[in-house]
Amino acid sequence: MENKYTYEDAFAELQQIVSDMESGDIDIDRLSEKIKRASELLVICKAKLTSTEAEVQQLLAKLADDSAESSDA
User: Fold this and answer.
1) CA count, 13 A, side-chain hemisphere, 22
2) Could you tell me the pTM of the whole model?
3) For the segment 19-64, what is each residue's pLDDT rounded down to a tens digit?
4) Which of 33, 38, 61, 72 is deepest in the core (most CB within 10 A)?
């Protein structure tokens, strides 16, 4: 599955599915389809969060290194 969703788009669609399920707007014939789609969206959201966390950790490590180098000079 190609991931062309933004986190915001995936999360908004996931919220809509949950809302439809809570309101009973999804008939039983489409329920498994919606649950499968929700599972895919959760994977997308988790991947985006994990990727962002890794980027933030790298930036923080770089800032710490730069700060240490400038205090040594």
Assistant:
1) 6
2) 0.77
3) 999 998 888 889 999 999 999 999 999 999 999 999 999 999 999 9
4) 38
